[in-house]
Amino acid sequence: MNVMKKPAVSIVIPAYNEEKWMRNCLESIAKQDIAKQIEVLIVDDDSEDDTVKIARSFSKKINVRIVRNGTHDAEIGKKKGLDAAKGKYFMYFDADMEFADTDWFSKNIELLEKEKETVGVLASFKPKKTQNPLTRCISYDVFQRDPIFKAFTPNIDDTIIKEENGYKICRFSEGKIPCQSLCLYRLEIIKKIFGKDPYLMDNDVPVRLVKKGYTVFGFRTDIGIYHYILENLGELFKKRMRGVLKTYMKHLHKREYKWFNLEDKKNIILMGAWVLYANLLFPGMFVGIYKAFKYRDTCLLYYPIINMVSTDALIFGFLKSKKGVNSLLKV
Predict the structure, then answer these.
(1) Average pLDDT by consecutive 10-residue portion of the chain (331 residues)?
(2) For the chain, what is the total number of helices (H) and then of strands (E)?
(3) Element (H or E) spanning 237, and its range?
(4) How far apart are CA 152 and CA 135, in angstroms?
(5) How high is the pLDDT of residue 329?
């Protein structure tokens, strides 16, 4: 195993039975132009396949460490990885992701070194021709959001305070934080704020940072990430249901990122209108056709189907939760 006294970057990858994706994910890290300055912490949740074996096979290419999770909770796994991280910069990453560019880290570190006020650099996603049409369709959104998330979350363009050659500087405020937490952070700051927490809750990270006064983030779209998020519509439905029931509603009283404010009756009306829009299909079909011509990619014709399945899964999951029903009754 490669030994580094002080790695530039620590990448934490929570993993459970990820043998299908792990090799390509780690290969994209090994190809980085600063690969020798990166440590990779695989936080394994007692995988029953070759996930760990594949990870260890990369020990001659990159610095790989295995950290045991054992809780079957990815958010706790991320925190275990944070506790073990030694780099100057830190990010968590999914096993089914790949870095699309070999200079992803060097460019983002250059930004962080130049823009001292920034707490991190947000990642952006890219579509890849070899991805299946469903994944490619939502990858045209810079944060890989389903249409419903894009409609009800803040637009990062509204937070930009400065534009430089190749990147943007954004200032966030409470209630004006984009739905994205995949980011290259300054490790010292993240450990200071989340050091005593039992878990690292994805989109809550930027919210906590903003509340503590760390409001400036970098953002660039000239480099990106490929995320193989979907294989079929059934998987989309299950993932959105799981996100509502096991991630969002389970920790609702602790969540700091609220992408939909139920206390505002106008939002309830808007959501009702969105559900109608999504299930009629025809309005979304026109949007999909427009996007297909704009990007010259027929995968975007899946837009209305993805919109309907994702919307209905989120609504169904919300109504299935007692917390969700109770919150509606209070409105």
Answers:
(1) 68 97 98 97 97 96 96 92 96 97 97 97 96 96 94 93 94 92 96 93 92 97 95 91 70 68 74 94 96 97 97 86 53 44
(2) 13, 11
(3) helix 233-242
(4) 20
(5) 41
DSSP assignment of 291-327 equals HHHHHT-GGGGGHHHHHHHHHHHHHHHHHHSHHHHHH
As given in the structure block, the two tokens for residue 112 are: 């962080």
For the chain, how many residues are written? 331
Q: What is the CATH T-level fold of the domain 9-227, as seen in this structure?
A: Spore Coat Polysaccharide Biosynthesis Protein SpsA; Chain A (3.90.550)
Q: Rounded to two decimals, what is the model's pTM?
A: 0.90
Tokens encoding 9? 């970057």
Which residues make Cβ contacts (< 8 Å) with residue 89, sequence separation at least 6? 8, 9, 10, 105, 108, 109, 112, 184, 185, 186, 187
Structure token pair of residue 21: 């994706």
CA count, 13 A, side-chain hemisphere, 232: 2
**Structure confidence at residue 263 (pLDDT):** 63
Element (H, E) at 55: helix 51-56
Distance between CA atoms of residues 205 and 145, nearest Å: 18
What pLDDT is recorded for position 108? 97
- With left for phi above 0 and alpha for psi between -120 and 50, is residue 178 left, alpha or beta? beta
Tokens 């400065």, residue?
Answer: 162
Side chain identity, residue 15: A
Rounded Cα distance between 295 and 299, Å, is 10
| Domain coordinates in residue numbering, the chain | 9-227, 233-329
